[in-house]
Amino acid sequence: MARPRGFRMHPSPIVMALVLAGCGAGGPAEDRRSEAIEVRDEAPAVDPATAAIVTGRVVFVGEAPAATPIDMSEEPTCAAKHASGATAETVVVNPNGTLRNVFVYVKEGLGNRTFPAPSEPVILDQDGCVYHPHVVGVRVGQRLTIRNSDGILHNINASPSQNRGFNISQPTNMESTRTFTVPEVMIPIACDVHGWMQAYVGVLEHPYFSVTGEEGTFSLAQLPPGDYVIEAWHERYGTQTINISLGAQETRSIEFRFDATTAASAVVPLGAPVDPHDHHGETTRARIGAAADAR
Amino acid sequence: MSTVATATAGEAQVHAGHDDRSFIRKYIFSTDHKVIGIQFLFMSLFFLVLGGLLAMGMRWQLAFPSDPAHPLPGGSLLPETMVNAGIVLPEFYNSMVTMHGTIMIFFAIMPLLVGVYANYLIPLQIGAPDMAFPRLNMASFWLAVPAAILILAGFFVEGGHAGAGWTSYPPLSVESGYSGVYNGQVLWTLSIIILGFSSLMGAVNYITTVVNMRAPGMTWFRLPLATWALFITAILILLAVPVLTGALILLLFDQVLGTAFYKPDAGGQPLLWQHLFWFFGHPEVYILILPAMGFVSEIIANGSRKPVFGYKAMVIAMISISFLGWIVWGHHMFQSGMNPLLGASFMASTMVIAVPSAIKTFNWLGTMWRGDIHFHTPMLNAMAFVGMFVIGGLSGVFLASTPVDVQLHDTYFVVAHIHYVLFGGSLFAIFAAITFWFPKMFGRMMNETLGKVHFALTFVFFNLVFFPMHRLGSNGMMRRISDPTQYEHLQAFQPTNRMISMWAFALFAAQLIFAFNFFWSLFRGKKAGPNPWRANTLEWSTPSPPPHGNFATTPVVYRGPYEYSSPESDEDYLPQDRPPAERPTPAPEPVPAGG
Amino acid sequence: MDGWLPQNVSTFGGEIDSLFYLILGIAAAIFVIVEGALVLFIIRYRHREGRKAAYIHGNNRAEFVWTLIPFLIVVFLAARSTGTWLDIKSPERMPADALELRVTAKQFEWNVTYPGPDGRLGTADDFVRRNQLHIPAGRPVRVTLSSEDVIHSFFLPQFRVKQDAVPGMSITIWFEATEPGEYTLGCAELCGTGHTRMMASVTVHEAEAYDRWAREAAGPDPSTLGDGI
User: Which range of residues forms the domain containing residue A166?
Assistant: First the structure.
């Protein structure tokens, strides 16, 4: 019986206050659905007096590829929820030339600091046969609550390479909860009943991650001063890193630039765009060298 | 054929007189075939109930597919990975389907027919003090226990229990990425491997005992048909189970060692599993019906007070079934991608195997014809066997015709067929056998009124549940789907599905009568003498229950097992070991073989 | 329930149906005879005071008769079935001038590859539709079946078509639709947790309407994702 295990609960008022503060710090115009829940936990390692912040945006250079339409006619319940037709979320370029659904996070530099997992779950909702959000971050040990808002059969197939995966179903409206125990960027999630559905979950041990939304911006606040490697991950255009040195109370602004050619030169990251026809993850995990699932 | 009769005569006397074994040696780790048979009985009855509960869960889901207004009763006791918000999850439905089949076939019906009655009856019916290898016999039961523990453990592991059907086709059963099941599938595989060894140990014992330990005068054609059936079944087990075990070991290697016997991407063949599995699987279904046929022959002769009609034909028919059973396995694979010419040859052999079963049916009817029929509970259940087995056999003819099978394969038509032969056939025979040999096992009768009520309700509800499934299947309802309403062509049949479920709940409830009767009678049943049914076979010449060692002196057999209403007897039965009446001529006439 | 079988819209479906009804008739007759005898004997030979059973061990002539007759019946059925079986499944008997399609089964969808404007499968202008099978009426269709993952089974109940799709194997089947309309393709082999909903819509078009559909449909596939990664 897989009750979620391993999460730690910290229902203290200070955490609640920090959470509320953190939610406000995400940037005014970002789409809440594509924004990772930014929780600021009770982290004694972080001294608010010296905390710094890294903000920025992810720019897409060049002509945005045309949005690929999704034919949902086989599922009328979902087709009805997309009056003007649904399009794939693989590459979404915002009107201001920025790239949406880029997962930006602190890859290195936090040292031995620990950050207890929050008690609130992260919600991954299936609505209109589309995962909301498309890219989301979750903490190690934090509950990921998968919700079926469509009332029809959905399958949730997670294919991590470091974590224990799962392949579960929800025949109607309900919620299922899972947790991940090992940091991993990114875990692809797909629905085997509706082959166009795709989501990515980034599992981290710290709260410093952000997903770009409608404005293409991100924000990593309450960072202790130090040297960091910040990575931006996109499911098609790969990853890029920027090294920064943060001083106390510094506000740094950085910019990532992706274009069509970065896809060709990108190191295929964990959870690269999943070919729904690739069952053993050969293309997905080719460069990582992890063996295909053999349970 | 001579036997080791004289040597064992003395031993039997010794055993019957002295029984100073400890409690543990007498009832727990016992080498006495009767105790082992009863141990199998209790274990199998437990699994019969569990298998029935799983079927109830399936029927609830089929009646109210994913309907929040009808949450699964008891669903709140189950974890969220099985039943979420009262709704059966598809992965749990697949596990219920898989485990219902697995438990019913391997842990209920097979041990009830063979583990119980081969053990209990064979030495008694042939006049032997025990099995040829009593300690091997004890090992056979105790090896079944870890297999049972493993099969139960699968319900408690992460990822749930096996979910690839009792047929466990790869690649679904070897890749957890496809099924979402992890250790459950491995536990399933291990459990059946171990159970196979338990069956093989039993089979070796049964064959050796029947060949070597028959009492003087017990020639082959004076053997009761129950013993014949169990003997032939044991040979089938001996030859078929190793194939399954081999196939399972390859499956296990694919599951945990990364081999690729069945994995196509690495050069393996999914069809290899199907051939190996069904090469075992078809003899397996005869393992599941032959003992039942044997019991039914005993009981119908007894209930009709008349010899079995065509005893020799019955034996030859059983032997034919067991031979032909080896060359029909492909009929489970007609649509698998096999060469169609090969399919046609399997069709021919499959059609022909209907004939010996038909012969047996006519012989049972012939036994009742011009009989003096007493409708005791075992007789009622045995007659139901005949009636229901005919239906199961007839539905098999549809499936045997390969073009018709195109429409019917993997639909509820097959579900109807298998339940008519396994429930309508084997299980009614088991009810008959339990009731018939209960007094011998426990020294008390089961309650006759409760027995009749249980029979009547079971018979009616059984048909109401399974007959409509023939039409569901021919109209295109596939097997193993958790929600038929997803398909437009099946939505019109949802009321039928719901009605079947209602009758199924009633059917399950009716079994409580049997359970109550069984347990109540263990303590409060009317005390039974040695031969309450006025039968002829050797077990009825012993006390009820028989002592350790069975017979005070080795019996001598003078005639066949079905000398009911014989002119030689004042009563309407004549036991096999009753010496013939004094005749003027000094030497008694030899009894005709088979008579 | 509406009878035993769904509507039939395929050319060889009628042969299968008539075999089904033939067997049904024979089975019904045997059922009546055997079950009737059982009931008759229960009534006629029930125990009554003074009744004695007949001491009869058998009758060889009866054994012969009731061995021979069932044998003849089943041999007849096997022979009668063989022709239809080979017509349906034998590669040598498949119609030559058929529309070629490829169907690849995958958890839990049917991906149909159409030949595209050049009319040939395996060329660059092939296009794929997920869960949509479009075929013309009155023209044989040859489908090459395979699977990407586990064993599925291609089941068209209204066409009397069923064939397992086995990974690692390419299996060819054929059928011909007689009537335009909307029908169902379902999966008839347990294939995982979505088995209950692995279905595709089957649209049979009039012949000219089919050509029109095929031309319009041969654009970029809106229903598959993950192509061209």
Answer: 13-282
Greater pLDDT, B242 or A50: B242
Rounded CA separation C67/C72 (Å): 9
Q: Residue B314: its chain C contacts at CB < 8 A?
A: none
C-chain residue closest to A284, CA distance: C229
Tell me the domain boundaries of chain B.
5-541
pLDDT at residue C223 is higher than 70: no
Q: How far apart are CA C224 and CA A198, in angstroms?
A: 12
B73/chain A closest Cα distance in angstroms: 18
- Nearest CB to A295; choose among B68, B91, B182: B182
Spell out the residues 6+ positions from residue B226 whose beta carbon is closer than 8 angstroms to its own: B117, B121, B125, B291, B294, B295, B297, B298, B537
Instruction: Give the three-state DSSP class for B425.
Output: helix
**CATH label of the domain that carries residue A95:** 2.60.40.420
**For B357-365, what is the mean pLDDT?**
97
ipTM: 0.94
For chain B, what is the radius of gyration of the CA atoms? 24
Residues 6+ away with beta carbon under 8 Å from A83: none
In a domain, A295, yes or no: no
**Spans of all domains in chain C:** 13-49+57-91, 99-217
**Does residue A92 form part of some domain?**
yes
CATH superfamily of C99-217: Cupredoxins -  blue copper proteins (2.60.40.420)
- Cβ–Cβ gap A74/C201 under 8 Å: yes
Query: Looking at the 3D structure of chain A, how many domains does it have?
Result: 1
Q: What is the SS3 assignment for A92-151?
A: CECCCCEECCCEEEEEECCCCCCCCCCCCCEEEEEECCEEECCEEEEECCCCEEEEECCC
Domain-located, residue A292: no
Spell out a b/e string for B154-188, using b for 16 or more CB atoms within 10 Å of the CB, else e.
Answer: bbebebbbbbbbbbbbbbbbbbbbbbbbbbbbbbb
CB C62 within 8 A of CB B370: no
Tens digit of pLDDT for each residue in C75-114? 999 999 999 999 999 988 899 889 999 999 999 999 999 9
Compute the C-alpha angle B17/B18/B23, nearest 5°: 135
Kindly indicate whether the domain formed by C13-49+57-91 is annotated with CATH number 3.40.190.10. no
The Cα–Cα gap between B424 and A25 comes to: 70
φ, ψ dihedrals at B298, nearest 5° = -55, -50
Per the domain annotation, does A2 fall within a domain?
Answer: no
Specify the residue for token string 């059946």: B192
Q: B5-541, superfamily in CATH? A: Cytochrome c oxidase-like, subunit I domain (1.20.210.10)
Of all residues in chain A, the one with the smallest CA distance to B154 is A1
